[in-house]
Every structure is written in structure tokens, then in C-alpha cells.
Amino acid sequence: MDWSDSWRGAFRIELRAEAVSLAYRGWPVLPGTYPAGTENGVTQWAGRSGLELHGPIPVHRDWVDRIGTRPDQVATWWAGRSYSLLVATGHVVDAIEVGAGLGHRAAVALRQIGVPVPIAATPSGRWMFLVKSGSKLNAELANNSDVHLYGKGEYIPLPPTTMAHGVVHWRVKPQVCGWNLPEAHVVQDALVEAVHAPARFQLETV
């Protein structure tokens, strides 16, 4: 992608508005590094004192101490640069990340029981189900290499953060569920059902 200043600038106002909106709702937002071109085929990330090889990561090294920053201060973070939009997990919101295939089946299961859940997706094909903080993965999901729970001490990128090959986007926006995050077990139950869905489907169609 073209990471020119003019291209990044087109997203800055949207990123800032989204960050402030989330902060007003109590979500612990953080500014993150952003793509700044490639060298030897490797994306470089800007926003800290120098270029980073991995990202997006928090711009502030003391980001843990900045959790809960007031919305008016959050607005100043995005005043000059198109920082990525990160949310610290383990405080208000956690995220259960899965591959797109498993995520799609779980989303169908949740839709069938009438439970809308905010879902963000990355350009690399990972889906993140946003849930209330404080729960652990059940044993079956904890042993599944396709599932990761982002909790305390971690963070996730949210739309419209730019990645190396595209933009993080919403599959289901938080507005759809009235900004009410589900309990983690609701999503975990849907994921367990989705894990076994292919086997059941094969049996039913033989």
C-alpha cells in the first residue's frame, strides 16, 4: 500500500474521532505506531523515537500507566499524526481472536440465537470478538491454536487502523448491540459450537 503522508492524513480525522468516541464510552484507547514504508520487503512502523520492525504497538512505552486517560487528552494524541487506534484489553473489554473460518461460523451461531457481538477483522484474516473483561478461555478453546484471548497486559487494533496490507474493519459494529459487550462465555459457547460445526455438517450431508 502507499503509505504517503497525504494518504495517512486522510485517516487522521477519522481515527481521532473514533478514538474520542471510544474514550467517552470508557474504552481504554491508546495511540499506536503506524506503517511508514518498507525496507527489504519488511514494513516499518513509525510513531516512537525511531522506526520499529513490528506493529502496531503503543506509542508510549508507559502505556499501562495511561489507561483511563480522559477523552479530552485522548483527542490531543491524534492532533498531529495518524496513529493506529489501539484498545488495552483487561480493562472494560477483552477480545477473543480466531481465524476467519471459525469466526464466521461462530458469528452465524450468535446470530441464530439473536445475540449481536462486536467483531473486528484484520487484513490478515483474523476476527476479534469483543467481550466483557475478566474471563478465561474454557479448556477446549485454550487448547485450540486458532484461538487467543487478549486480556490484561495486552492490546488490540481497532478500526480504522492501517496495517501492512489493508485496514482493520468492523464485521459487526458496537452500535449494533447498543455498545453492550456480551459476557465472554456467550461467545465461547458459540465458538465451541463452531469448532464442531464442520464435523456435524459432514455427517449430515453424507
From TrEMBL:
Top-level taxon of the source organism: Bacteria
Annotated organism of origin: Lentzea sokolovensis
Alphabetical list of InterPro entries matching this protein: DNA_primase/pol_bifunc_N (IPR015330)
Domain DNA primase/polymerase bifunctional N-terminal: 19-180
Designated name of the protein: Bifunctional DNA primase/polymerase
Lineage: Bacteria, Bacillati, Actinomycetota, Actinomycetes, Pseudonocardiales
